[in-house]
Amino acid sequence: MITFIPTPIGNPQDITIRAMKLFEKATLFLCEDTRQTKRLLRLLEERFAMKYPEAEFISFNEHNGEARLEEYAESFKEKEVVYVSDAGMPVISDPGQLLVAYCQEHALAYDVLPGASAVTTAYAASGFEEGKFLFYAFLPHKGKERSAALAEAMGNGYNTILYEAPHRLEKLLSEVLSLDENRELFLAKEISKKYQTYYRGTAKELDEKFKEMTIRGEWVVVISAQKSTEKSLSFSEVLTLDLPPKPKAKLLAQLSDKSVKEWYRVLIEN
């Protein structure tokens, strides 16, 4: 059995009782970074009296995942296996995706616990009204790939969530500014940590604010959906347009259950 367990994205008190019980029982930990996982377990042991597990710890990341599967796959059926990323929900923008695919392909039992996610936390904090959003994780670092990905993120018609490193945040703001200075943004810094801070404003406002700041920490950026500038005509407005019967019939057919031919007949008879 493999269990994918979310870890706190900041405050260690966000760990769940269920997660700690499974940590205590685990005999094999697959970790994005074994050092990070061991630090977390020691912290849970000290603060919440969790029993430190007698388990093997191995790294499992984007660089060695395939090799680890070849090396340890047979033991997955015999051991209580836990997979954890460095912070937050495993598998989402995370090498654990490879492990889930393996479990599905080989009919290996697995479970995913609910837990902390910077994506949903930042979106809830943003105050943006629409319930739909797209998650783009990290953009490419530079070049045409980055420009294309950002243009897509800003023009897809949905609120879009990105992760960004502190040393590239000012660059991202300037890039958004060059595309649409009035685009509404929400920025969340260090979610659930001591220096958690929220910022909301237009790209122009935030670009000016951040030029005066020393940017540190982990960031989640929510880009509001592009607002449509097109005006839709109502049925009654189309009826009053001074247009020839054929094009008017086509417009009316799109706004009703009648065909173009039916509307054309109505228009020429009147």
Number of strands: 10
Approximately how much beta-strand content do the residues carry? 15-25%
CATH architecture of the largest domain: 3-Layer(aba) Sandwich
- Uncertain parts: none
CATH H-level name of the largest domain... which superfamily?
A: Tetrapyrrole methylase, N-terminal domain
Amount of helix:
40-55%
CATH domain topology of the largest domain = Cobalt-precorrin-4 Transmethylase, domain 1
SSE order: EHEHEHEHEHEHEHEEHEHHH
CATH class of the largest domain: Alpha Beta
Rounded mean pLDDT is: 90
Report the total helices. Answer: 11
Q: Numbering strands along the chain, what is their spatial order in the largest sheet? A: 3-2-4-1-5
Instruction: Determine Rg (CA atoms, Å).
Output: 26 Å
The major β-sheet equals: 5 strands, parallel
Tell me which oligomeric state these chains represent: single chain
Category from helices, strands and their pairing: alpha/beta
Globular, elongated, flat, extended or rod-shaped: what is the shape? elongated
Give the tally of structural domains: 3
End-to-end Cα distance, whole Å, is: 74 Å
Describe this structure in words.
The chain is elongated, with a radius of gyration of 26 Å. It has helices at residues 17-25, 34-48, 65-72, 96-105, 118-126, 143-155, 166-179, 203-210, 235-239, 245-254, 260-269, and strands at 2-4, 28-31, 56-59, 81-84, 110-112, 133-138, 159-164, 184-189, 197-202, 219-223. The strands form two sheets. The protein has a five-stranded parallel sheet with strand order 3-2-4-1-5, sandwiched between helices. Strands 6-7-10-8-9 form a five-stranded mixed sheet. The protein is of the alpha/beta class and 270 residues long. The chain has three domains: 2-112, Tetrapyrrole methylase, N-terminal domain (Cobalt-precorrin-4 Transmethylase, domain 1, 3-Layer(aba) Sandwich); 118-223, Methyltransferase, Cobalt-precorrin-4 Transmethylase, Domain 2 (2-Layer Sandwich), CATH 3.30.950; 235-269, no CATH class. The mean pLDDT is 90. It has eleven helices and ten strands. Helix 7 (166-179) packs antiparallel against helix 8 and helix 10 crosses helix 11.
